[in-house]
Amino acid sequence: MREIVHLQVGQCGNQIGAKFWEVISSEHGIDGEGKYTGTDPLQTERLNVYYTEAAGGKYVPRAVLVDLEPGIVDTIRATPMGQLYKPDNFCWGTSGAGNNWAKGFYTEGAELCDKVLEMVRKECESSDCLQGFQMTHSLGGG
User: How far apart are CA 9 and CA 61, in angstroms?
Assistant: First the structure.
């Protein structure tokens, strides 16, 4: 089976990504705790593309969530689907970029770069046959 690593970056990317995981989990019969609750065997046919099967039959998204401020990440954790994500794959800064591209690129974002790359590396190494990456983010800024 080929796997995809999903990256959610920034407020926009995290909001779109959270909705993506909500929809795909519903389509595959996965509840907010990662348990399969579906009734159709076709739902489980390609679960391993986006999910890693953890202990106890729990399915965890192969996703890395990144933002320069903790607000949106905390909001995602507080949703019914928030327990679905792997806690080690959340990465956030403290102050944000304040709508300043240079601050996000050269200072605040640069500080998180190594940590994010390490998270992505771990997700890639835990895959059997990595197919590619999927990324949700804003193109025009916040």
Answer: 15
- Position 141 scores a pLDDT of 64
Helix, strand or coil, per DSSP, at residue 39: coil
SS3 (DSSP) at 9? strand
Strands 3-9 and 130-136: parallel
Question: Cβ neighbours of residue 62 under 8 Å, at least 6 residues apart?
Answer: 3, 4, 5, 6, 50, 51, 52, 123, 127
* pTM score of the predicted model: 0.90
DSSP state of 99: T
Q: Which of 5, 60, 17 is nearest to 35 (CA)?
A: 60
